[in-house]
Amino acid sequence: MTPIPRILIAAPASGTGKTTVTLALLSALRKRGANPVSFKCGPDYIDPMFHRAVLGIPSYNLDLFFTPEDVVRGLLCRHAAGHTAVIEGVMGYYDGSGNTTAASSYAVAVVTETPVILVVSAHGAYLSLAATINGFKNFRPDSRIAGVILNECSKSLFDMVKDLLTAETGLPILGHFERLPDCAIESRHLGLVTAAEIENLHLKLDRLGEAAEKCVDLDALLALASSAPPLEGSLPSILPALAKKPRIAVAQDDAFCFYYADNLDLLTHFGAELVPFSPLRDAALPKDIGALYLGGGYPELYADVLSQNTSMRRAIFDAVSSGLPTLAECGGYLYLHDTLEDSAGKTYPMAGVLSGHGFKTPRLQRFGYIHLAADDDTILCKTGETIPAHEFHYWDSTITDGMCTARRTNGSTWSCVAKHPTLFAGFPHLYFYGNPAFAENFVKAAAAYSEARL
Length: 454
Prior knowledge:
The protein is an alpha/beta fold. It has 13 helices and 23 strands. The chain has helices spanning 18-32, 46-55, 69-80, 105-112, 128-138, 155-169, 201-215, 218-226, 261-269, 303-308, 310-321, 331-335, 437-452; strands at residues 6-10, 36-41, 60-62, 84-88, 116-121, 145-151, 173-177, 187-188, 191-192, 247-251, 256-258, 273-277, 291-294, 296-297, 326-329, 337-341, 347-349, 354-374, 386-397, 404-408, 413-416, 423-426, 429-430. The strands form five sheets. It has a seven-stranded parallel beta sheet, with helices on both faces. A hairpin with a 2-residue loop joins strand 8 (187-188) and strand 9. The radius of gyration is 23 Å and the shape is globular.
């Protein structure tokens, strides 16, 4: 059993301020010397980027759709040992998969026995806040809600309602945040803009931390975190698959930035050496690589720059066409098309590995969790093997056939993952701990490719 001080930051709904409050608390706890480490519930890439901007270390996902309960506990134990863990929730506290609490923030709190701080907007209410808080506290008998932070709340309102709300709910009101418009983070179609796009981000984060130090009872919050019981979990045995380390090129820049930290860690655990590069800025792929990983992101926002980098487009076309094992998820998949439409509707040439066109649609496409099953052998898996995944994209593709079938929790299915002997490319985002063999097979394919070229 591992002692891990921990809290989970939840809210009644998206847009209530979970991320802003989480960033403020991470900044304040770091300054206090509490050695925080951060986590995010659910399949999110962008919020962990902001967590990392505060702490300078990776932020990890905890997702009960992707992995069993014991693995979620195991990942929390591995990454949080010696730290104070701050877990940011997803959507509304009880909102999970298939109109249930499955894989919700609440489910993560219960499985990890974590005290929950409910962030409630105080805009336009005072006594009615007690009804909201009690509703969430009592909706499930094991809600684990242990405290409240009021957002969009002036000091005068906080002073007026703090004791009243405690008396009505039986919960400590740990603090408040006033409106800080100069610390606001813009949104776009996949959620917030990425951390790298915000000017003077560290100044905003510092100001948020100062607000938390001033207006939140950090001692009481840390006491709640320390009240969490010791935790025990288990992880699958991961051993290096090879004697030599194959080099895997990983696209990492403003256009390709959606990676789970545990995915990258798992590739290295299996023996890979990860080599970052930029399709936006670099003229060529890294030397002596055995595989290529093109993650998701926003290639549509950088279509012009990606198109102008003709030497990189040619390098990737030549490498993948010659059999370089390649994994391309969502944005990376679109980059491999012949052409890609930007957000203004203008079309640009891309890498040209796949004969298809990526185009903008007026609405979110196939949003949510899926189970991905291979209909044919691929570089990551054999026919019939499966992995939990998710899709979340506004752009679509003219490519309609594939070598895998995606199945939603409601039973709907569709074909995906472009047919190619050494390429696994499609809209699904994979989480390797859902089936570590996918990562192991990718590393082995990289090693075999490198060995064959010696």
